[in-house]
Amino acid sequence: MKVDPFSLPLSSPLATARETIRERSGFVVRYDHRGETGVGEATPLPGWTESLDNCHRGLDDAATVATDGGHTDILLSLDAASVPAARHGFATALLDADAKADGVPLYQWFEPDRRCDRVPVNATVGDGSPTETADAVEQAVKAGYDCCKLKIGKRSVAEDVERVRAVRERVGDDVTLRADANGAWSRGQAEDAVDRLAPLGVAYVEQPLPADDLAGHAALRGEGVGIALDESLVDRRVDSVLDADAADVLILKPMVLGGPGNAHTLALRAREQGVEPVVTTTIDAVVARLAALHVAAAVPDIGACGLATGDRLAVDLAPDPTTVTDGAMSVPQKTGLGVDPAEVGTDA
Question: Which among 100, 149, 154, 253 is annotated as catalytic?
């Protein structure tokens, strides 16, 4: 097991209701298994996962286990609840090697009978004035996207509603709009927002309330705008969210959930209970983006996912084998993730 650090600047800062993200730092993990070298990525995002230092410590401890133990011992040493990004890094490398050894792309390792060439994706637009937001969405639509997610919550509800209204008036009714509040609202603000966003045809609002308010989210459902939960999955089991009937949609981030395998299992569990899964990245580098893409590709009839985030990085760990055309991302059909570990560098 080999672990190398990296730091990648964003092409421009990404403002959310929680923070402004300017760079992504993490670790590339390589692991030899079944005659193949697998590659993984651990890119923590504090507030969502462990800190960078704790991720490093987790991987160091796992590397110590690897000197005498096998992959099962290493996975057991990486707790998804406390070091999810570190576990994601190793788990992805292990799965990459397994899929290569079996001669299949990773999504077919999850679902052997699946054949998927493309996954629908949404564009993500950060905070800005109504005109800036409408301009950004219009550019995304011209680039082929028919689904856009707007970051909201930094401004008042009234200001954000005007931003959404400006977008809808600019691009018309054929574009699916989603909104992500990152838990910024009170119950009263969320009720007001849902009432005012419903006539604008917003498909769902992501995390309108703080993460622990499952009852409040449940009460918001059925009012004309779907309720998606994201941050609520950070500190609790998905089963508790599903049992609370708190969501129409679950936003599944493999980096937050401890690996692609965990994310795939939870996507299928949500679907079984009538809740739609949407797979997204945490603004990751190419290795983790590919892992998330394969998770999405393994889920039949999945809706637009938040995977087209590579352009957020000024530089990347390796050439991206995917393309985005007409609002869909191509799925590599090579074995494993679809990226050569020898091409993955950490000196960008």
Answer: 253
Helix H or strand E segment including 246: none
Note the pTM of the prediction, 2 decimals.
0.94
Report the CATH number that the domain containing residue 290 is assigned in CATH.
Answer: 3.20.20.120
> Same domain for 217 and 150?
yes
151 and 252 share one domain: yes
- Could you say which DSSP state residue 232 is in? G
Active site residue 253: yes
CA distance 31 to 28: 10
Q: For 77-108, what is each residue's pLDDT tens digit?
A: 999 999 999 999 999 999 999 999 999 999 99
CA 256 to chain centre: 8
- Residue 50 annotated as binding? no
CA distance 261 to 63: 21
Query: Residue 20 and residue 230: Cα distance in Å, rounded?
Result: 18
CA separation for the pair 77, 66 (Å, rounded): 10
Assigned token pair, 343: 């091409």
* pLDDT of res. 20: 75
Question: Tens digit of pLDDT for each residue in 22-48?
Answer: 899 999 999 999 999 999 999 999 889
Q: Is 174 known as a binding-site position?
A: no
